[in-house]
Amino acid sequence: MKKVAIRDVSSFNNKSIQINGWVYNSRRSGKIGFLMLRDGFGLLQCIVEKKQIGEEQFDEFKRLTQETSISVKGKVVENDRATGGYELLVDSFKVHQMSIDYPITPKEHGTDFLMNNRHLWLRSKRQHAILKVRHQIIKSIRDFFDMNDFTLVDTPIFTPNAAEGTSTLFKTNYFEKEAYLCQTGQLYGEASAMAFGRHYNFGPCFRAEKSKTRRHLTEFWMVEPEIAYCDIEENMTWAENLLSYIVKEVLANKKNELEILERDIDKLSQCQGEFPRISYSDCIDLLNKSGNSIKWGEDFGSPEETFIAEQFNKPVIVYGFPADIKAFYMKRDPENDKVVLGMDILAPEGYGEIVGGSERETDISTLLDRIKEEKLNKRDYDWFLDLRKYGSVPHSGFGMGVERVVAWICGLTHIRETIPFARTMTRLNP
To answer: I need a surface site. Which of 78, 100, 184, 195 has the fewest CB within 10 A?
Structure first.
């Protein structure tokens, strides 16, 4: 008998098939039972009749518990009232392992309990929907760069240096040498851009920030394109095109999941076309006029980012940040040395920064001065400086945090649900 995934049952109407999965729930009324089966692809209602399967199997059906693993054989029939429009008339079933005292029952559970049981919580309808959307986002990222002739070049996780200072790094003992878990692959991405023209890297990053906010994880995934012969304006366009494409693909392919999450699709649909642009200085004026006290030169926190984003109905690009609060490799504005040719993209609805990028400094003497100012070890950056000695060109890039994008698109209140197994200051398990 053919093994079929629940998502494909519509192609087998009036045919006998086998479905392998787990018991989502079950109930019975007299001599008829109703088994809701999940297989990772969907849910299917199965009709269990005593006269069809016999008394012995029907008694076994009565004992089925939540998350029992099971194979079910039967005939597919149409039913407009059933989930997905089809159901299975069961001929027989086989239990592989009876689940005893499954801890996540159909009732309210506290967040700590659910996170402690994350390995099981992933099976729930809502978490399943979130990670399906995450999958689509990641697929869309890769598709976007593949369609635009970017080359994926993997960057190392162990690094001898920091890209953005040294205060938020995880230090490791690397065979009696000091190394760090990467906080970004960007510096290595610049080397790849000089080799391939258009590069992106995609992988885990680590920040040892002692932050307990709903926007921060210690381990997260980031995609970082780097583009040769690209200025800050073109860089902004690449970033907004990527985000627009991601949202379009999620809306096209994961509408059911967004409905499960009760996401306002109309708000997401506005994320198309050119994003509004506003300078850092204008943001400062806007904040102060609204009663938010902040001085020019200070970095934005979550409240400031939220306020700025709330002024627009789609992601907004903030540019022209003070040089003193940005990384050493960012190119200064030739018309104003106090600011960099950098940008952040803030998501609407209070989700804050989801993209950060800049045009990169190409002059080796300027970078040497910056490295000295930051009190960094020049030897750690010798290879990076080589990129300015052998065919240096204007280039730009950005980083996009996957989890923050997932949180925004799914409409989640906390970033811990955006990744299969969250790592925070207080959580290293499961």
So the answer is: 100
Say if residue 245 is in the same domain as residue 203.
yes
Place of tokens 């925004």: 408
Instruction: Give CA–CA dist 212/158, Å, rounded.
Output: 25
The full DSSP string for 248-262 is HHHHHH-HHHHHHTT
In a domain? residue 396: yes
Going by pLDDT thresholds of 50, 70 and 90, the confidence category of residue 214 is: confident
Ordered DSSP codes for 84-131: GGEEEEEEEEEEEE---S-S--SS---HHHHHHTHHHHTTSHHHHHHH
Q: Are 2 and 17 in contact (CB under 8 A)?
A: yes
Mean pLDDT computed over 90-115: 95
Hey, what are 327's tokens?
A: 């990384």
Please name the residues in contact with 107: beta carbons below 8 A apart, sequence gap of 6 or more: none
The whole-number pLDDT of residue 428 equals 94
Confidence band of 212 (pLDDT split at 50, 70, 90):
confident
Alpha carbon distances (Å) from 416 to 104, 109, 122: 18, 16, 12
Is 357 a residue whose pLDDT tops 80? yes
Structure-block tokens of residue 270: 């506005």
Q: Are residues 408 and 288 in the same domain?
A: yes
Residue 19 belongs to domain spanning: 6-97
CA dist 150 and 130 (Å) reads 28
Contact 284, 325 (CB under 8 A): no
For the cut 90, the answer to whether the pLDDT of residue 9 exceeds it is: yes
Per the structure block, which two tokens stand in for 186?
Answer: 């960007």
Same domain, 11 and 81: yes
The residue among 100, 48, 49 whose CA lies nearest residue 72 is 48
49 and 125 housed in the same domain: no
- pLDDT for res 263: 97
CA 70 to mean position of chain CA atoms: 32
Tell me whether residue 430 is in a domain. Answer: no
C-alpha–C-alpha distance, residues 314 and 268, integer Å? 8
Q: Quick: pLDDT tens for 248-288.
A: 999 999 999 999 999 999 999 999 889 999 999 999 999 99
Q: Is the CA virtual torsion 267, 219, 429, 23 positive or negative?
A: positive
User: Are residues 130 and 86 part of one domain?
Assistant: no
Split into its structural domains, the chain has a count of 2
